Amino acid sequence: MATWDDVRRIALALPETTERGSYDDLPAWRVRDKMFVWDRPLRRSDLEALGDAAPDGPILGAQVPDLGAKEALLADDPAVYFTTPHLDGYPAVLVRLDRIAVAELTELITEAWHARAPKRLAAAHRAGAA
């Protein structure tokens, strides 16, 4: 299963990605200063909302292209992907990092990067030029 070292390696391999602390000064990865994946421990309000379903372990936040993609991930594998009321209406999912395979994590991070990267940079990356 995946680790923070995997997240760092995958994210930093994408064009123009930087690692800089998030709002809580936790690790976060950005493309042209737009955060696309981040360390997202559960907050008190998250724990209260999730109750006994609140997971232990490392939690990754990841941007997704739209709410449809979010719903698809949540429905596809609820053992890995989840959300909290804080993220309602926002195109992002939370990921149990210790339950996701590295290949799936790579796909998730790459899609998150594409969701936040400028259109020309994303198009160049898709075409293999970036």
Characterization of this structure:
- The protein is α+β, with helices and mostly antiparallel strands.
- 38% of the residues lie in helices and 19% in strands.
- The chain has 5 helices and 6 strands; from the N terminus they run αβββαβαββαα.
- Strands 1-2-3-4-6-5 form a 6-stranded antiparallel β-sheet, with helices on one face.
- A hairpin with a 2-residue loop joins β2 and β3.
- The radius of gyration is 14 Å and the shape is globular.
User: What is the makeup of the main sheet?
Assistant: 6 strands, antiparallel
Order of helices and strands: HEEEHEHEEHH
Strand line-up of the largest beta sheet? 1-2-3-4-6-5
Principal-axes geometry comes out as: globular
Report, as a whole number of angstroms, the end-to-end distance.
Answer: 28 Å
Helix count from the secondary structure assignment: 5
Look at the helices and sheets and give the structural class: alpha+beta
- What is the residue-averaged pLDDT? 95
Helix content: 25-40%
The parts where pLDDT drops under 50 for at least 5 residues are: none
Instruction: Give me the count of strands.
Output: 6
Strand content: 15-25%
Radius of gyration (CA) equals 14 Å
